[in-house]
Automatic annotation (TrEMBL):
This is YCII-related domain-containing protein. Transmembrane segments: none annotated. PANTHER family: PROTEIN YCII. It comes from Ceriporiopsis subvermispora (strain B) (White-rot fungus). Residues 7-92 form the YCII-related domain. InterPro entries: Dimeric_a/b-barrel, Sec-metab_biosynth-assoc, YCII.
């Protein structure tokens, strides 16, 4: 039985004018892959980061990046998964600002252990 570790992924989007369109273009494929990783217990929680103005009443939710918590055997395994994600391949996530770090949860994580 292999030992699994927990990792936090911070993946802000590029900020150029075309970035939102690139995100929407590959979003269905990204979500399909994420659902599979959730079912496999690799992604424990994940979602989109929103712009601060997104929380104003009636405001459109503007996605500006993603955060996820992964469970895997190594940092390299998570890096490989992230680098194969449609958001990474499709130049949605800013590759220079992306961060993957080991993570120690202070509260229980959702999903299977």
């Amino acid at each position: 039985m292999s030992t699994k570790f927990t990792f936090l992924v911070y993946a802000p989007d590029y900020t150029d004018a075309e970035a939102p369109q690139r995100r929407l273009a590959v979003r269905p494929k990204h979500l399909e892959g994420a659902r599979q990783l959730v079912a496999e217990g690799v992604i424990r929680v994940g979602g989109a980061m929103l712009s601060p103005e997104s929380i104003q009443p009636g405001a459109e939710k503007k996605m500006v990046g993603s955060t996820m918590i992964y469970e895997a055997e190594s940092l390299e395994a998570v890096k490989k998964i992230v680098e194969e994600d449609p958001y990474y391949v499709g130049n949605v996530w800013d590759k220079e600002k992306l961060v993957i770090l080991p993570y120690a949860a202070a509260t229980p994580l959702p999903g299977p252990a």
